[in-house]
């Protein structure tokens, strides 16, 4: 299982520790233009993702965490080419996906799937659950009608649904059941990589645990790799091998899961972890760190370290010079002048 991580100047070999990674993202950028009108001589852009690099190994879960608006979901959609990157490379098994045409992407779309956040709006209300799960097989023409029905029934059983529920419509299921339908749909084509875009955040806590356990079991059974996007660190700890922390379009820290939770190296990560409830109140915990202000606008991000406007440790260097992303401990990377 691959360990380690990196960003920007970090090579793929360094980022994955050992072995060839399944996915390598290098200097990924996604800027959304803002239409200021025909008389706007200086058009602005939203720097949603601004120079992100990481790798995901075979059978590994890398989690992306951070506040809303940090660029997590945009990264997931860029990897799948649901939106087009502005700059950078996305290499799947060594092949850069960015320059590929729609037709050339087809084989890779079968290998990469997504589980969306909202298990209701992501399902077509006019299709039965069986039709929803079988649609990828029909679109890609990988099975006959009889084979599709057999495959869908097996997928329903595997995710904890009854095959006789295939004829029901999305509104007839609970939220947790709808998300299981979404998971079954993502498995239909036998992918290697699944992007989970906050797949449990819309579910009740008890249902979250069931879905996390299901995803873990599926990973072990099929050797899946996950890019797990979330903002709840308590959920992330139960499913991740490595964790990458994002702030304002950039990764500020990436490390093995246990190392990041036990010894965070970036002030932003420390603040996030200070808010995570402890299951055992008898254990000592660090004082809660309250970050002042709001996350700055990605239209005009701060100079230097982007976190300096909310960091109590910021120095003049932090305000003027962007910190290098470097290995501060074995397989532990952070972008902070103070580490």
What does this structure look like?
By secondary structure, the protein is of the alpha/beta class. It has a single domain, classed as 3-Layer(aba) Sandwich (Rossmann fold). It has helices spanning 12-16, 72-79, 102-111, 129-140, 145-158, 175-187, 205-222, 233-239, 257-262, 267-274, 316-320; strands at residues 23-34, 44-56, 61-65, 87-92, 95-96, 112-115, 193-197, 225-230, 242-247, 250-256, 326-329, 332-334. The strands form two sheets. The protein has an eight-stranded mixed β-sheet with strand order 6-7-8-3-9-10-12-11, with helices on both faces. A four-stranded antiparallel β-sheet has the order 2-1-4-5.
Write down the overall mean pLDDT.
89
How many DSSP helices? 11
Strand order of the largest sheet: 6-7-8-3-9-10-12-11
Largest sheet: 8 strands, mixed
Helical fraction equals 25-40%
Number of domains: 1
Could you give the distance between the termini?
27 Å
Beta-strand residue fraction? 15-25%
Rg (C-alpha, Å): 21 Å
CATH architecture: 3-Layer(aba) Sandwich
What is the name of the CATH class?
Answer: Alpha Beta
SSE ordering: HEEEHEEHEHHHEHEHEEHHHEE
Q: What's the oligomerization state?
A: single chain
CATH topology: Rossmann fold
> What is the global morphology?
globular
Uncertain residue segments: 1-14
Which structural class should the secondary elements be placed in?
alpha/beta
CATH superfamily: P-loop containing nucleotide triphosphate hydrolases
């Amino acid at each position: 299982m691959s360990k380690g991580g990196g960003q920007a100047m970090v090579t793929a070999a360094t980022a994955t520790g050992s072995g060839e990674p399944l996915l390598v993202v290098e200097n990924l950028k996604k800027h959304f233009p803002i239409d200021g009108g025909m008389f706007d001589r200086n058009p602005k852009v939203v720097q949603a993702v601004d120079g992100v690099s990481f790798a995901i190994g075979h059978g590994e879960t890398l989690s992306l965490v951070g506040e809303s608006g940090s660029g997590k979901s945009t990264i997931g959609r860029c990897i799948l080419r649901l939106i087009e990157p502005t700059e950078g490379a996305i290499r799947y098994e060594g092949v850069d996906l960015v320059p590929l045409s729609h037709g050339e992407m087809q084989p890779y779309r079968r290998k990469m799937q997504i589980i969306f956040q909202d298990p209701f709006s992501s399902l077509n209300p006019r299709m039965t659950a069986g039709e929803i799960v079988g649609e990828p097989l029909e679109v890609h023409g990988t099975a006959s009608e009889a084979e599709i029905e057999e495959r869908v029934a097996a997928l329903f059983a595997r995710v904890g649904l009854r095959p006789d529920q295939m004829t029901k419509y999305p509104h007839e299921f609970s939220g947790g059941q709808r998300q299981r339908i979404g998971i079954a749909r993502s498995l239909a084509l036998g992918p290697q990589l699944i992007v989970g875009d906050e797949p449990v955040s819309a579910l009740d806590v008890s249902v979250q645990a069931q879905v996390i356990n299901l995803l873990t079991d599926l990973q072990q059974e099929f050797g899946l790799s996950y890019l797990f996007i979330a903002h709840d660190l308590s959920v992330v700890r139960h499913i991740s091998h490595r964790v990458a922390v994002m702030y304002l379009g950039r990764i500020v820290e990436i490390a093995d899961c246990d190392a990041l939770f036990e010894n965070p190296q970036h002030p932003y990560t420390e603040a996030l972890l200070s808010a995570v409830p402890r299951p055992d109140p008898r254990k000592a915990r660090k004082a809660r760190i309250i970050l002042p202000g709001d996350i700055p606008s990605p239209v005009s991000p701060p100079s230097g370290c982007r976190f300096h406007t909310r960091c109590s440790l910021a120095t003049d260097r932090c305000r003027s010079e962007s910190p290098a992303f470097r290995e501060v401990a074995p397989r532990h990377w952070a972008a902070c002048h103070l580490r």
